[in-house]
Amino acid sequence: MKSFFKNVLANIVAIVILCAVFFFFFIIMLVFSSMSSDKSVTVKKNSVLTINLKTIIIDSPTEEQTGIFNINNQNKSILIYDALEAIEKAKTDDNIKGISIEADDLNAGITQIDDLRNAIQDFKKSGKFVYAYGNAASQISYYLGSVADQYFLNPSGMIELKGLATEVTFFKDFADKYGIGIEVIRHGKFKSAVEPFLRNDISPENKEQLSTLLNDIWKNTSTKIATSRKIDSTQFRTIVDSLYGMIPEQSLKYKLADKLIQKTEYDELIKSKLSLKEKDKLNKISLGKYINSYSEDDKSGDKIAVLYASGSINNGDGYNEIYSEKYIKYIKELQENDKVKAVVFRINSPGGSANASDEILFELQQLKKKKPLVVSFGDYAASGGYYIAMAADKIYSEPNTLTGSIGVFGVIPYYKDIANKNGIRSDIVATNANSQYYSGLNGVTPYGVSMITRSVEGTYKRFVHFVTQNRKQSFEQIDSIGGGRVWSGTRAKQIGLVDELGTLNDAVKFAAQKARLKNYNVASYPKKMSPFEQIFKDLNEDDISARVIKSKIGKANYEILQQITDEKLRSEVKMEMPYQIKIN
Fold it and tell me: For the Peptidase S49 domain, which residue ranges apply (predicted)?
């Protein structure tokens, strides 16, 4: 009996402790949330708007890193739309005298940096100064900083200006060596997502599209840097080829930087620019705090809804990426909301599940019947990410967006050889001819391959059909620029895959025009999760293990691991871009 009561008491104590832990985390989250959403920020006179290392620019609310696993992260994420709005507001704010860019590395995509750079370029028309400072500036950071009136570099610093390159890793020999079979079915000679499993070297088609993409993006960025720094294009190429930015004295000599000074000297220089006295404090205000400083507009009137779709496209329900069930719910809510007069669908996705993409497209087509639907592309809108744009009244793309990739594939790994080598085999008992058309130990039957091929081909034809309807081109025209090929936004505009080159702001303005609105508010969807919701999301066992593995092997390697180990992903026909390009 004593033992029984001891066990009961132990369980009660454990439950109390567990409840206390939950309560503790809940209180911490509420405090943290309260601190991070503090609106009581005052912009002092002679302030300088500062873009620094703590500035994290995100494309979608679902990308924000919050929750108990990021409790110590003091870097508040900022939506690109809010960042651009803040710079526009600072242009006419008498308390903001200039902008200081102080980031050696920036956590943002190339199209987001493009938009920031353009906004700062416009800010300069106000006559206010823009200065930049670097210690060990990454290429993407220098791309932003080069827009400044003057760029200052630490005397022992460097600028990593090197151009663009990509490295493709191949797994065929590895798979052959260890007896891993991989059945690949694809439509499109440019659909190179599966090449690492088929070849030991890069195909001519993939090399061609990668070269075109990299050169398109580099032409856009390098031209802007050279123009801002007043460097001849031929000389600029020599500077980049020679890595002169790695040596501070060379950076100064070749006009990448205007002066070599310490950070303290840089701050004193800004104080002098503001005519401040030595004892006066330099008032710097971060982009995030500046956004919190001005009160929100009245949200009771007509709205333009911006529905953000960022990440891979998946079946089912989830938050951090694009899950079909969740997005169908969002789209229906926007369709039924009478205050929402138009919707801008912001896509930043390399694609994913063909089935999930088709479900989302259908719901968007229903939405379009009731109100204007305008699409805006971020860093990526390729394959499934392009597919879900096909309900749009108009498509806006950034020049450096990676889009197109109109193609379909399926990857089916199996382990027959390695199993046989280690004394493992299997027998199959089935009710029908193709009950076991796929087995991890025996691979895919010939008939199974033929049916999956038909499925892939049918999905491709359906893909192209929707593109022909939206882009008003023939099947043959779309097929000639499809085949899985990825295009830059600039090229996509030339070949008719998008309507305009422009920003998210441009898309919002057009949506308002189409809805005949003069006064409107912009509302973001999906809404951010509450701290309470985030706690329980972060305590999900699968999510915890995924975070740990991803942190150890990196996001790119984790996605490859998922393709091989996640049965749900393996069994799907995919509309997915073969790679991602980042400017580091």
Answer: 123-265, 366-517
